[in-house]
Amino acid sequence: MSSTASGKNGTWRNWGGNVTARPAREVTPASVQELAAAIRRAAEDGLKVKAVGSGHSFTSIAATDGVLIRPQLLTGIRHIDREAGTVTVEAGTPLKRLNMALAREGLSLANMGDIMEQTVSGATSTGTHGTGRDSASIAAQIKALELVTADGSVLTCSEKENPEIFAAARIGLGALGIVTAITFAVEPIFLLSAREEPMPFARVLAEFDELWTENEHFEFYWFPHTGSTNTKRNNRSAGPEKPVGQIAGWIEDELLSNGVFQVAQWVGRAAPGTIPAIARISSKALSARTYTDIPYKVFTSPRRVRFLEMEYAVPREAVVETLRELEAMIDRSGLRVSFPVEVRTAPADDITLSTASGRDSAYIAVHMVKGTPFQRYFTAAESIFTAHEGRPHWGKVHTRDAEHFAGVYPRFEEFTALRDRLDPDRLFQNDYLRRVLGA
User: Which SS3 state, helix, strand or coil, does residue 205 take?
Assistant: First the structure.
């Protein structure tokens, strides 16, 4: 996959292939000053501006018919402060490059999502997260950020400097300005022991609280039409390092997780009736394994099967009930779901529009392989999630609007008031922001 999803003859496409846009022009600034100039020029020409990362969002959050800013020249580490335990990186740096560069320096982020193709600013601006009992999303690890606003001025934001902007801009949806650099908290590199094992769905639901309490990072995948899950527990370890062997790793991560899975998706697409049988085989294909390695090698995995995804954060105490309703809905509906449902958690944080803002959260993600009809499944799942005061991931498929968000985010108006102040003429507006934040 190229670092940035794109298409032919000036058409931009996202990774999932479900969003396209035709910008009037594209700009690839090589410095913050060039970016500020491009913003001022767009305003003079009456064009809207959007920055795009690697196109990993399934929503049209980055789409524009105005000026599309590509950040690939704004990459790399600006500064490492070992005393303060921070690293400052340019906004267009892919997470993969950041993780590898930090590892070479003997450093690591405390927690991360399971995909690392995204840029640091794209991932944080949409609220990308992993799973954690105590450690939160990538945006919650931000200590400072640099933001270019609609009038071309460059602001530094932290708890001390522009704190009210810092509270919102860590997950800013691209609505407050264009992030050009991010300072993350980092720590000396550590080892994680991963324990992956199949477990009956009924047992995971019955013991969810214990599994969550006893592990620093707990997540599981449930295979619809089966009573099976694959669980993953990651905990810090004193070592020794025991990475997954190259051949075993290839079989598990490439052949089973991507290769066989891709074939299963093709078969399921051609003959939906075979999906429950395929799901039973898939759920048994991944055997138990344990391994110990540096964080990014444990937290992240390659995703080569293209899919569409909807994910909602529900209050953590509502997760078991929500999953039972989801299972009953799938059984009742006659839907054929070939992709596992992914369940993760995050502690409450203090970011204005974070999906975990002010409440301990559990994330439930439903997927459909690219090219299969997803509407019926996603619509039915969404009505269950919203009944539990669900907050959708900003970068994944959902149909919610500003009215819904005003109800589920206590500080929603704080964000929109800040946007009125920083972008009164809506230079960074697009259809998606009009829907989710209101006109």
Answer: helix
Confidence of residue 288 (pLDDT cuts 50, 70, 90): confident
> Phi and psi at residue 322, in whole multiples of 5°?
-60, -45
Mean of per-residue pLDDT scores for the chain: 91
Neighbour tally for 297: CB within 10 Å: 19
Please give the Cα distance from 392 to 312 (Å, whole number). 4
Residues near 419 by Cβ (< 8 Å), separated by ≥ 6?
175, 176, 437
CA 197/CA 348 separation, integer angstroms? 28
**Using CA atoms, how far apart are residues 143 and 159, in angstroms rounded to an integer?**
8
Tokens of residue 55, six digits: 């196109």
Residues 6+ apart with CB under 8 A from 138: 95, 109, 111, 112, 113, 120, 123, 124, 128, 129, 130, 184
Q: In what order do the strands lie in the sheet with 178-185?
A: 77-81, 86-90, 178-185, 142-148, 154-158
Secondary structure (DSSP) of 257-321: IIIIHHHHHHHHHH-GGGHHHHHHHHHHHS--EEEEE-HHHHH-----S-EEEEEEEEEGGGHHH
Q: H helices then E strands: how many in the chain?
A: 15, 20
Under 8 Å between Cβ of 131 and 346: yes
d(Cα 405, Cα 90) in Å, to the nearest integer?
A: 30
Cβ contact 148:154 at 8 Å: yes
- Max Cα-Cα span within the chain: 60
Cβ partners under 8 Å of residue 262, min gap 6: 304, 305
pTM (2 d.p.): 0.92
% of residues, the chain, pLDDT over 90: 80
Give, as one character, the DSSP assignment of residue 250: I
CA distance 426 to 49: 9
Closest to 9 (Cα-Cα) out of 27, 28, 22, 26: 22
